[in-house]
Amino acid sequence: MPRPLKELLKDIIGEKAARAVGAFDLIGDIAVIRIPEELRAHSEIIGKTLMKINKNVKSVWAQIGPVEGDFRIRELVHIAGEKRSETIYKENGCIFKVDVTKVFFTPRLSQERKRIADLVSDNETVFNMFAGVGTFSIVIAKKKFAVVHSSEINPHAYNYMVENISLNKLKGMVIPYLNDAAEVAEKLEGKADRVLMPLPEKAIEYYKYAIKTLKNHGFVHIYLHISYPKGSNENDALIKGSDLIPTGKVIYYRVVRQVGPRTVQAVYDVEINKDL
Ligand SMILES: C[S@@+](CC[C@H](N)C(=O)[O-])C[C@H]1O[C@@H](n2cnc3c(N)ncnc32)[C@H](O)[C@@H]1O
Fold first, then answer.
1. What is the CATH number of the domain that holds 181?
2. pLDDT beyond 70 at 3
3. How far is the CA of 222 from the centre of ligand 1 (A)?
4. How far is CA 70 from CA 6, 153, 157, in A?
5. Is the shortest distance between the CB of 177 and ligand 1 below 6 Å?
6. Three-class secondary structure of residue 203 per DSSP
7. d(CA 151, CA 113)
């Protein structure tokens, strides 16, 4: 069993520095690692050490800034291996081509994508408002006989989504739009059984558009960032988070992933009954 990265790094850059090296994501044969500013001088050796213990990794990039902007992209610099940012990532029986420098992408939502796909019934019409390279949409359409309308405003992400639909043989099942979700909502008024809102920064603002696209009865899966003060209880914060959701009945919620100190990304499954 190979020693974990931080263990190996202890002998090379010292125990304190090794402890400060952040977590890394494996996306196909590319690794993306968080390296604090004060350790940037060690980037190359950290990247090479990571490649030594993960033989499948061919290229390592360091994340040097937060995920930001409308396209939710993070600033990356190449630190070891091939200088290549495009790769093929496999998950839930699907394949995704992505460029880690040009689009938002995280493997940390794979369980959540499976959970949502399991909730979808055959013959549903789904609207994924913030589709990225098509991750949620493709996992759903691969598992269920459902049409997934998928809007995205980053042209790079949209182009990868189009290619990924072909790679997964889902033409006609995942319908891509290079448009703002609010515009696509106009076209889908009253047509959807389920809406996905995987963008916490815009979810509350766009909630009214999600509701507009739903039939009389349907579901919204809304993703929010929930922060809580030191010493307070995460579950209390999650319950309070449901108060942010303008309409509908929250039927389930859970933490999807940690996104910062005392800040989590949570999903709320909301049932909408327009007749009530
Ligand atoms: C957090 S990412 C989620 C991507 C994808 N669902 C995933 O999990 O891989 C949000 C995506 O929404 C896109 N986006 C931002 N504002 C948008 C809008 N108004 N309409 C459609 N897409 C938007 C961004 O470009 C980004 O790719």
1. 3.40.50.150
2. no
3. 13
4. 34, 8, 12
5. no
6. helix
7. 17
158 lies in the same domain as 195: yes
49 and 168 both lie in a single domain: no
For the record, the structure tokens of 18 come out as 């090794």
Show the tokens assigned to 143.
């598992």
- What is the extent of the structural domain holding 118? 90-273
Whether residue 78 is found in the same domain as residue 14: yes
Question: What does the pLDDT average to over 170-198?
Answer: 98
CA of 152 to the centre of ligand 1 (A): 6
199 alpha carbon to ligand 1 midpoint, in Å? Answer: 6
Do residues 195 and 268 both lie within one domain? yes
Lowest-pLDDT range, 13-17, 93-97, 100-104? 13-17
Tell me, yes or no, whether 32 and 115 share the same domain. no
Mean pLDDT across 97-114: 97
Q: Is the sign of the CA dihedral 74, 80, 86, 90 positive or negative?
A: negative
**Does 100 share its domain with 226?**
yes
Report the nearest-CA residue for atom 19 of ligand 1. Answer: 180
Q: Whose CA is nearest to atom 1 of ligand 1?
A: 199
195, 261: one domain: yes
Give this prediction's pTM: 0.94
